[in-house]
Amino acid sequence: MVMLGQQRLLLTGIATEDSIATATLRQALEFGAQVICTAFPRDLEGARAVVAGIDPSVEVLGLDLCDPAGVEACRASIVERLGGLDGALHAVAFAPARALAAPMSVAEPQDLELSFRTSVQSFSVLANLVADLAPPSGGAVVGLDFDGGGAFSVYNWMGVMKAALRELTTYLARDLGDRRVRVNLVAAGPLLTRAARHIPDFDVLLNAWATTAPLEWDAGDPSPVADAICFLLSPFARAITGEVLHVDGGFGAMAGPLPRG
Ligand SMILES: NC(=O)c1ccc[n+]([C@@H]2O[C@H](COP(=O)([O-])OP(=O)(O)OC[C@H]3O[C@@H](n4cnc5c(N)ncnc54)[C@H](O)[C@@H]3O)[C@@H](O)[C@H]2O)c1
Question: What mean pLDDT comes out for the span 85-95?
Fold first, then answer.
């Protein structure tokens, strides 16, 4: 059985060649899925070029997940092109730089509201889209977490957004279970994407992984994360929901830095 054979997937969050969603597209096609991609309107042209380099037959729609009218237009396009949806990847997050660097106490309410709508609430929007378009056999939605088990010296309000995303995942799993829609997260280790480069002192996270992860972690290779996403979107994960699967080289399982020989 091909892992994603006959699965109709929507992959959000393609911006560049390095995006986790781009790696997921590669793997999903390899595993037999039928895919439609979306990109934030500002990133649409670049995303189309990236996707064309992988498979020119894959369509890329513009989608701002915070824009209800855009979501409705996307829903209509999916129904027209695929007839329904078996799964979706949420690979979307944003916070203004001030919310990622300054002390927590100086964050502006409008920055936090934008961060929450983009990085947390939009996951619920996508999960409900899958629930509406899934066949009676059900569907799956996967989001992306970054979970170091506590506070880092960087990441700040995005850490709070990810904690909210983890909690939201459990409530969505509760709400959508009777429609057989599964809701899960992959907690990825640090990867060198555009979003990561937006985080001040991202090197702090890379150094933490270098000292603490028991498995070697390659921040330039999103394919292990993409494989886990594909697994969670596939029928092989049919009894898994409300879960966070850590694909972080074992970082989260360690209590502290390891002696390196
Ligand atoms: N890179 C890492 O180290 C890392 C680690 C763990 C989790 N993550 C998470 O992975 C996800 C994907 O990020 P990435 O690292 O691939 O970076 P990326 O910059 O390639 O992707 C982020 C995407 O979010 C999109 N986006 C922003 N606002 C949007 C909106 N309103 N509607 C639709 N799309 C919007 C951007 O256009 C972009 O495609 C994010 O949730 C991020 O927090 C990243």
Answer: 98
Locate the ligand 1 atom nearest the alpha carbon of residue 195 and give its number. Answer: 19
What is the mean predicted confidence (pLDDT) over 139-160? 94
Asked whether residue 195 is assigned to any structural domain, the reply reads yes
Report residue 148's pLDDT band, with 50, 70 and 90 as the boundaries.
confident
Query: Would you say 119 and 94 are in contact if contact means Cβ atoms under 8 Å apart?
Result: yes
Q: What is the CATH number of the domain that holds 241?
A: 3.40.50.720
Q: Does residue 199 sit in helix, strand or coil?
A: coil
Mean pLDDT value of segment 106-129: 97
The residues lining ligand 1, judged by C-beta closer than 6 Å to any ligand atom, are 12-16, 19-21, 40, 43, 63-66, 91-94, 118, 144, 146, 188, 190-191, 193-196
Average pLDDT over residues 2-11: 97
pLDDT in tens, 20-44: 999 999 999 999 999 999 999 999 9
What total of structural domains would you count in the chain?
Answer: 1
Domain that holds residue 183: 8-245
- Which atom of ligand 1 is found nearest the CA of 146? 6
The answer, as to whether pTM is greater than 0.90, is yes
What ranges in the chain are assigned the alpha helix state H? 20-30, 44-54, 68-82, 97-101, 109-116, 122-133, 156-176, 194-197, 203-212, 223-233
Residue with the smallest CA separation from ligand 1 atom 24 is 92
At a CB cut-off of 8 Å and minimum separation 6, what does 65 contact? 12, 71, 90, 92, 118, 122, 125, 126
Ligand 1 centroid to residue 138 C-alpha, Å? 26
Distance between Cα 118 and ligand 1 center (Å) = 10
Question: How many angstroms is it from 194 CA to the middle of ligand 1?
Answer: 8
